[in-house]
């Protein structure tokens, strides 16, 4: 039997990503974001929703650029820490021993320890209430070569412990169940 709950957001699991921002080293910052996702394939577009009181908010609004860095199990501690400490008080790159790297298109730094970094340029900012939604074009992707399968050339993120966020807790990825379209594939 189902119960009624007051309205809330319960779409889980989600990735917990690290958003890096800033256009000069003194401004560089990182915040953890779970309210993120894909909103269009072509042109490739993503969103992140950020509360206006975050230190990163003004930085991203000013520069209109940021990087979505996917996270792994090895990055779990830093992912949590960057989500509970503010760049107002800490240099998060230094504190978490994360390495800022150069992007190809945007001036914001990427995080070298991340397997895949999506360079984003803000197209629109929509005030929704608690959060503002930054709608962005993905203008470049920097993918770690070590995650490429040498035989197939495929990017093997699933094999390399992506971090999963479910209602306040972090998990690893579970077992593979099937592939896109397998439900209608003819049995050999
Ligand atoms: C798992 C996790 C997910 C979070 N998701 C968001 C989010 O989607 N949007 C947001 O504004 N803050 C989110 N936060 C909180 C910010 O990351 C946090 O307030 C951070 O300290 C802000 O850093 P800053 O002040 O340096 O920008 C999240 C925190 C955690 C731990």
TrEMBL record:
Flavin reductase like domain ranges (all copies): 10-172
Bilayer-spanning residue ranges: none
Cofactor: FMN
Keyword Flavoprotein attached: yes
Gene Ontology molecular function: FMN binding
Pfam hit, one: Flavin_Reduct
Keywords: Flavoprotein
SMART domains per UniProt: Flavin_Reduct
Family designation: Belongs to the flavoredoxin family.
Protein name: Flavoredoxin
Organism: termite gut metagenome
């Amino acid at each position: 039997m189902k119960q009624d709950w007051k309205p809330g957001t319960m779409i889980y699991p989600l990735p917990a990503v690290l958003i890096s921002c800033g256009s000069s080293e003194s401004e560089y910052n990182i915040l953890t974001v779970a309210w993120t996702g894909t909103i269009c394939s072509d042109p490739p577009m993503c969103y992140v929703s950020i509360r206006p009181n975050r230190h990163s908010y003004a930085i991203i609004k000013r520069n209109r650029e940021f990087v979505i860095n996917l996270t792994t199990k090895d990055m779990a501690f830093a992912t949590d820490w960057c989500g509970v400490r503010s760049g107002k008080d800490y240099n998060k790159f230094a504190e978490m021993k994360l390495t800022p790297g150069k992007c190809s298109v945007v001036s914001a730094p990427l995080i070298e320890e991340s397997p895949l970094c999506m360079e984003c340029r803000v197209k629109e900012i929509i005030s929704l209430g608690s959060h503002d939604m930054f709608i962005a074009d993905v203008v470049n992707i920097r993918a770690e070569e070590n995650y490429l399968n040498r035989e197939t050339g495929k990017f093997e993120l699933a094999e390399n412990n992506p971090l999963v966020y479910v209602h306040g807790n972090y998990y690893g990825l579970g077992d593979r169940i099937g592939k896109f379209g397998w439900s209608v594939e003819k049995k050999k």
